[in-house]
Design a protein that fits this description.
Layout (H helix, E strand, L loop, with lengths): L1 H4 L5 H25 L15 H18 L3 H20 L6 H4 L2 H16 L13
């Protein structure tokens, strides 16, 4: 047990890694909707200035800010709200169960972003560049 407790010293690096990996995957959701990259969505690209287009902007550019760890807490708060909205408006009406309504990713993103609001950016971030 002592060996596992000694891993605590790596918490800032693991938090930074969680932020970076989450941001990279989240950015892909935005670029898919905005540019059809890496693959176009089955429903096609959203029209400019629609709800889905604004969501894609948040995903791509909010994800980019999280990737570099800049303004992590406020950006993560906004993105958590976006994911909560996406879940309750688009997934939950289909079914009570996330595995059945396709909303499990939205829930995970929401709670990871809420964690980043509380925990901050972790290592390797613009927000913490003076603490390195």
């Amino acid at each position: 047990m002592q060996a596992l407790n000694s891993l605590q010293r790596y918490s800032p690096q693991m938090l930074g890694l969680l932020r970076i990996v989450t941001a990279l995957i989240f950015i892909a959701h935005g670029t898919q909707k905005l540019f059809g990259f890496p693959v176009a969505p089955a429903s096609g690209l959203p029209a400019a200035f629609t709800l889905f287009w604004f969501g894609a902007i948040l995903e791509a550019f909010g994800g980019l800010l999280l990737l570099v760890g800049f303004l992590t807490r406020p950006v993560a708060f906004i993105l958590a709200g976006e994911m909560a909205y996406a879940y309750w408006m688009f997934h939950a009406p289909r079914s009570l169960y996330p595995i059945a309504n396709g909303g499990d990713a939205a829930i995970l993103y929401c709670f990871i972003f809420l964690y980043l609001v509380v925990a901050g950016a972790g290592a390797w971030s613009v927000d913490n560049r003076s603490k390195a």
